[in-house]
Amino acid sequence: MQKQAIFQSKLLPYALVAPQLAIVLIFFYWPALQAVIQSFLLQDAFGLSTTFVWFENYVELFSDPAYFEAILRTFFFSFAIAVSSLSFALLLAVMADKPLRGVMLYRTLLIWPYAVAPPVVGVLWIFMLHPSLGVLSRYLRGLGIDWNPLLDGDQAAALIILAAAWKQISYNFLFFLAGLQSIPRSVLEAAAIDGARPMRRFWTVTFPLLSPTIFFLLVVNIVYAFFDTFGIIDTMTRGGPGKSTETLVYKVYSDGLLGGNLGSSAAQSVVLMVMVIVLTGIQFRFVERKVTY
Amino acid sequence: MVEEEGFRRYVAHIILWIGIAIVAFPVYIAIIASTQENALIANGQMSLLPGGHFLQTYYQTIFVGTSGSTREPVGNMMLNSLVMALMIAVGKIAISIISAYAIVYFRFPFRMPIFWLIFITLMLPVEVRIYPTYKIVADLHMLDSYAGLALPLIASATATLLFRQFFMTVPDELLEASRIDGAGPLRFFWDTLLPLSRTNMAALFVILFILGWNQYLWPLLITTRDDMQTIQIGIRKMITTTDALTEWPIVMATAVLAMLPPVFVVIVMQKLFVRGLVETEK
């Protein structure tokens, strides 16, 4: 689609795109290119010489069991965060979609956590569930659970998933509510006249009509779990105990901090890049992003 | 009509209030903790009711900071966060709206390649190019500066797409009319297009401000000086020290202060926020 009415000017359009183009080239493409090039090079221990090694960095990366575990862990986290947050948000959205008194207030009270930054989410949750001083830990211990997420890897993972899912509830709720409100009332009324009870109406009419929203949110939540959990992990567990909460993004960061292997770090970046491209591709190809509000 | 009978309505209210409680509980605990004595909290004896140290804790947090050797007043961190958030939000809107204008209202060589170059940055979030970007910013001597904090994040494929989409819906007659009035491209942009884009800009601003204020990974990498810390970084440093030394009331007060501006924006500008969120995802 193109505009029919346009302006004629030789230089002005370039001047207008120049600022964005400069930022994009300097801070996006140049570093991305550096990462790709770097991932094919091997630097000696003193950083004095580099050799071109083809895919050696990648081979080394994928034959490292720790990296493989980080991939599995990241996928598991994404799945757990997406499913728990989506199902809870859907329940709330279905309730808020009913003609209730004070629905606008409910909406306001449910959407604000969107604005809480991931590192703050991490701080809030580690404080509540801190092994020695957390207010909820007392009750967990009362239930006979030996609660110590700072030492127990599985508990640490559960904590990260819980906190990350909590933050995402508001976002999912908002989009579910929008999706529910775009379902024509007449369809639901028809089902009601046919004698379908509310539960049945939900699973046979509402849920299928909501599937584009669900799929869209699934992709968004996976992207969120991949990237935005960094702040949560960094303030809560720093990837530990051991490596039990180290996701792919966290691994790039912490491996890089230790200095060490530039080639491997670059190869990890490139793998992540490919994953983002695939996820964004899915989002644009399959998701009909038409959410009306 | 799909009527809800009384009982079901009752259940819906209860479920929603449970949801709200779950969502609000961690923040409630943070607020409560920020009003209590550290000794009490450190012993695991924290009460679930407000304590009497509200003013004292917030005063110390904002103007003094923790008692540690690398203390930094949180007020200063908030200022850094504010400057960064505003630079990111305003910067993204400014450079996106002018590039969208060029792409929609002009025909020039490399128009589409340029559009694609901007568009593809969607697939290059800072997380996938952490260290090379760091190196460039270091080479440009922009570490520990506001420019270094904001500039590398300022390109926006989403905003450019949004403005492009919006400009496509602006009727051609408006351009014809202002051309008859003798207006050139800059005049048309300033007098006609910009006022029309006000709501879009405002909605986008709300989202981008929150996004900017909540930045974490990037400031973590490029700020080393304490006085350049943003509040998100500051809070992490406060709990770095061994557990026993963490001053929890101050940490929690900082958490509350870190949430305040973006949550305030969401609640007060809810309409714009929702619009911005839905628009940017299209």
Automatic annotation (TrEMBL), chain A:
It is a multi-pass membrane protein. GO terms for cellular component: plasma membrane. The chain crosses the membrane at residues 12-32, 75-96, 108-128, 156-180, 201-227, 266-287. InterPro entries: MetI-like (IPR000515), MetI-like_sf (IPR035906), UgpAE/MalFG_permease (IPR050809). Residues 71-283 form the ABC transmembrane type-1 domain. Belongs to the binding-protein-dependent transport system permease family. Part of the ABC transporter complex UgpBAEC involved in sn-glycerol-3-phosphate (G3P) import. Probably responsible for the translocation of the substrate across the membrane. This is sn-glycerol-3-phosphate transport system permease protein UgpA. It comes from Bradyrhizobium frederickii. The gene is ugpA.
UniProtKB/TrEMBL annotation, chain B:
InterPro entries: MetI-like, MetI-like_sf. GO terms for cellular component: plasma membrane. Belongs to the binding-protein-dependent transport system permease family. Its main location: membrane. This is sn-glycerol-3-phosphate transport system permease protein UgpE. It is a multi-pass membrane protein. The complex is composed of two ATP-binding proteins (UgpC), two transmembrane proteins (UgpA and UgpE) and a solute-binding protein (UgpB). It comes from Bradyrhizobium frederickii. Residues 78-269 form the ABC transmembrane type-1 domain. It comes from the Bacteria. The keyword Cell membrane applies. The keyword Membrane applies. Gene3D superfamilies: MetI-like.
